[in-house]
Structures are given as structure tokens and as C-alpha cells.
Amino acid sequence: MDKSDTLGTEKLTKLIARFAIPSVIGMMISALYNVVDRIFVGNIPQVGGIAFAGITLTYPLTLLVIACAGLFKLGASSIAAISLGEGNRERANKAINQCFIMCALIGVLFTIIILGFTDPILRLLGASDATLPHARDYIKVIGYGSIFNFIGFGMNNFLYTDGSPKMAMGSMLVGGILNMVLDPIFIFTLGQGAKGAAIATIISQFVSFLWTMGYFYTKRSSFKIRVNEMIPDFKLLYRICILGMPVFINQIAHSAFVTVLNTQTARYGSDMAVTSIGIVMVISQFTMLPVIGISHGLQPIWGYNYGSRNIDRVIKAFYIGIISGIIYILVLYCGFMIFPAFCVNMFVGSSPVDVGFTVKAIRIFLLLEPLIGFEVMTANFYPSIKMPFKSLILNVFKQIIALIPLLYVLPLFFGIDGILYAGPIGEILTVALSLVVVARDIKRLKNGEITKTSPLSNTD
For residue 167, which of 157, 176, 177 has the smallest C-alpha distance? Predict the structure, then answer.
């Protein structure tokens, strides 16, 4: 039996634990080193608060990396998993190689754009005269390592698809630990400030890239990197993009949301208010990334069993994912809701920041954070059953239709507090819509209607 065949035969709870736990650990490390990155920057003497605000303003650019690489990562890994379930290993291998070349190309393009238009981009993202130097120092260095970040991030999912979740976890683990070790060396010992954080990040991303790509040249890999399969196959790329489009649009929408969030905060508050909102977003990211890890671990299980028409197994795995995601966030939620001031002091230390406002921002904006477990699981579930546009609709609704208008309207009545109210109101609206859509589609899955009528049923 091929090791990927266990996706359809192994006991589901044991299989999910084997795939999801390494993914969660990897994502927790990834989230942790992003947190540690900002802790070190926020504690730079004299300028920590402003430097923290500066790298906060670059976050939408990070989301663009996730969006572009995720377009090919999720689409190709979904096709690979479904193809394995259908017994078509040749198509699965070709999807992987198409993902590789596209991630490499957009990595180069991203570097050219970032290095060529640094200041105009940062001004568009809301950088002030005070925050611009720190944001510039950080993002220019990140730009130089973009190609390794794109490829490493884009190819990591295929290690799960190939039945090697521990190797995928190792890629994130080695990069995360290395980043945490290098951060204080470059930031404080070598006195590089925000630039030092970026240098530590790109070195760590390069090592993760080597780990991930090295796997495909070992005997453990069922897939192979082949130059002849990197020649663009536009029919296959179309299928990949269709399945990956929800992640792409979601991250683009989230990037737009964060940009509006930062600019509106600066408009109704100050650079220090941007620092406060940055802390809120880092906490949100820290709680959300491991849930994304759970969904990444589940994607090959969903896709394989959907491809082999084992629908009961698909639905059961979906429910387990939702419950696991919500429980995980609830545990962390209790921590940052009970001890918000500790979180603030951890990020910025003695740097000047309005602790009272930051605490209020955490408790209001993140009031309904546990519901994100349901949203993330749903968004990543639909592409695995060849219904990417449902995921796209739900994601666009939250970011574009709900949150961004709320960020413009509510401050007109409540000032900067209106920005905080947008968080829980947006969650309520999104979850209500998601519940209606998912309940209907689960029923259709059980009745066999989706597998019969899916517009992507032919993935050849």
C-alpha cells in the first residue's frame, strides 16, 4: 500500500492527530517567531514603540506573499490530494512542479517591485515620517529573500500530501527556532534594529527553504522535482488557480483590511495607536495560525477522501477540525482576555504606548476571536471538495463587505473606539452567513449532489 493510501483507510482520529499535530506545532512555531520578532523590535531602547509601528505597517506586504504563494500552494496541493485519491499520481506530481516554478517567478517579481518602489508603497500603507525609516529598513531586507520565502512556503504543503507531516513540521520548526536565536544577535548585539529582525527572518526562511526542497530529493519522497514538468501547463494552471483563488482573494482582502485598519487608526489616533492595533493583530495571528495548521493537516485527508468518494469520512473530518480549532483558540483566548496588560508589556516593555487603550483594544476587537476557528476551517474545507468559490464568497464578505465598511462608518460616530467595534460585529455577520451556507452544503454532500454536479469534477 502506498503511504498516501492511508488517508482513506487509517482510523480517522488517529490519522488527523498524525497529520494535524505536526502542522499545528509548525504553525505555532511560525506564529511564535513572528511574536518574538516583534517583542525584540518593540523593546529596542528609545525607539521600540515607533519601530514596532513601522514593521506593523509592512504586514500587508507579508499578506501579499501568503496570497500569491497560497494561490498555487493550496490549488496545487488540493489537486495533488484529489488526484492521489483518484489514482492519478502523474497529475499529482505535475501539479507540484507547476507550483514550484510559479512561486519562483512571483518571488522574483515581488523582489523587483519592493526594491524599486519601497517608499511609495510604505506611504500608501500609512507610514509617517517617524515610522517610515524603520519600515523601510525592515521591508527592503525582506525583499531580497522573497524568492526563498515564496518557494519554501509554497512547497511545504506537499510534504503533508505525501504523507510526511513531521518533515513539514521540521521545516517550520528549524526556521522558527533559528529566527528566535538570530533576532537578539542582529537587533541588539550588532545594533541593526528593525533591519536586524529582517536579516534574521530571511536567513531563517532560507534554511526552511533548503529543508523543504531537500525532502523532494530523498528516497522518502513519492514526488520528484522535474524541470520538464515545470513548463507551464496552462490548462492545469487554470485548475490550480481556480482552487487556490479563495486563499489568494482572502489574503488580498485581508491585506486591504489591515491597510485600512492602520490608516484609519493613524487618522483617528496616532503612531502609538498603530502600535496598539499592531499588538492586537499579532495576538490574533498567534491564535489563528495554529488553526490554519489544523486545516492544512486536514486538507489532504479531505481531498483524498473526496476524490475516492468517501463522503462520510470527509464530513466527519470537517466536524473534528471545527471542534479542534474552536477549543484551541478558547484556551489562548482566556489567557489574553484575563491578562491583557501582561501581553502589552511583553511586546513594548518600557516604550511609550497607551497601555489602557491597548488593553481595551484587545478586549473589544478580539471579543469573538474563538469563532475564527469555524471561519478558518470552512475557508480551507471548500477548495478540498472542489467548491473554491464558496470559500471565496465567505472570505470576501468578511473582509470587504463587512469589516472595511465598518472601519469607515463606525469611527464617524464613535471615534477611534468605532475601529474596535468593527472586529466583533464583522465576526457575527460572517459566522451567520457561513453557518447558513455550510449547513446547506453538508446536506448536499450527504445526498451526493455536490460530487455529481461539481464544475471541477474533471481535473484532467
Answer: 157
